[in-house]
Amino acid sequence: MERDKRLALELLTDIHDMEGIRGVDERNLESNRQRDSFNDADIYHLNLLLGGGFIAADIEEITGIHTYRLTWSGHDLIEKLQKEIFKV
User: Fold this and answer.
1) Is 35 or 51 the better-scoring residue by pLDDT?
2) Which domains can be identified in the chain, with CATH numbers?
3) Helical residues (DSSP H) of the chain, grouped into ranges
4) Residue 25's beta-bridge partner residues?
5) Is the Cβ–Cβ distance between 74 and 54 less than 8 Å?
6) What pLDDT is stored for residue 88 in this prediction?
7) 57, 64, 68, 87: which has the highest count of C-beta atoms within 10 A?
8) CA-based end-to-end distance of the chain
9) Average pLDDT across the chain, whole number
10) What is the pTM of this model?
């Protein structure tokens, strides 16, 4: 699968806009993306962002639901991608 900077920016921005003090629940993130579940591209990019240290995730032990949070590097990546993609 190819890396898509726009999709990465969308995911990061959604997490940024929705996260509370404890992060954003994956169900709310999916709903905000107007999906019942993440598609393969979403999962691939979330894993890239996790592996790169741009987001962090916790898993609720009982339900297995992920909660995502931006890292400092994730905030920096949003700014970088906005400048690159939108020439802001």
Assistant:
1) 51
2) 5-86 (1.10.10.10)
3) 5-18, 26-32, 40-51, 72-86
4) 67
5) yes
6) 64
7) 68
8) 28
9) 93
10) 0.92
